[in-house]
Amino acid sequence: MQKAFFPILTAFLIFSLSQHALSQNKGKEKATPSVEKIRWYSFEEAYQLNKKKPKKIFIDVFTDWCGWCKKMDAETFTNPVISKYMAKNFYCVKLNAERKDTVIIDGVTFTNPNPTGKRSTHQLAIDLLKGNMSYPSYVFLNEKCQWMNIVPGFYTAKDFEPFLHYFGEDAYEKKIPWDDFKASFEGVIK
Question: How many CB atoms lie within 10 A of CB 1?
């Protein structure tokens, strides 16, 4: 009888401990806030959505070879504070500056003049960046799809948060100087 008792006791203890660990993990999952992911649109999709329901448009102009673009995707755009704010306040666009296809917006055609060439820039990217081809760069359009400004470069989530609020809360439209806004901005990210 003693020989049968120890394996049964061992199995019971293992089962009890595993059940306890599972219940602990379930509690942790419930306590973790959900992260709102950014829904990335094509420029054409965001433009059409904006016609139906006006909202500011944020455009991430990138290239496949840009290391800082990849770092921005991996570190900044995945921050829950950044992604939640962007999802709420903007139609978010990923625009490959070297895309190969033709884009027609309100009868205006944009192409890549050399779609088979290496690092050939699409006319839409050139137009949005006003010819200042730097990657990554972020273009902000207002609810009327009018160009507001460009913010070039990589930023940590903490450093990017004020830019989103500056354009998202219309400080730019109200002509509040950037330096004044940034000096008084109290972000969530520490």
Answer: 4
Domain total for the chain? Answer: 2
The reply to whether 25 and 108 lie within a common domain is: no
Instruction: Give the residue among 80, 54, 88, 66 at the shortest CA–CA distance from 138.
Output: 66
pLDDT at 30 over 90: no
Which tens digit of pLDDT belongs to each residue from 33-48? 456 789 999 999 999 9
Bin 2: left if φ > 0, else alpha if -120 < ψ < 50, else beta: alpha
Write the CB contacts of 101 (distance below 8 Å, at least 6 apart in sequence): 112, 115
Q: What is the pTM of this model?
A: 0.80
| φ, ψ at 96 (rounded to 5°) | -75, 115
Same domain, 9 and 54: no
Q: Which domain holds residue 23?
A: 1-32
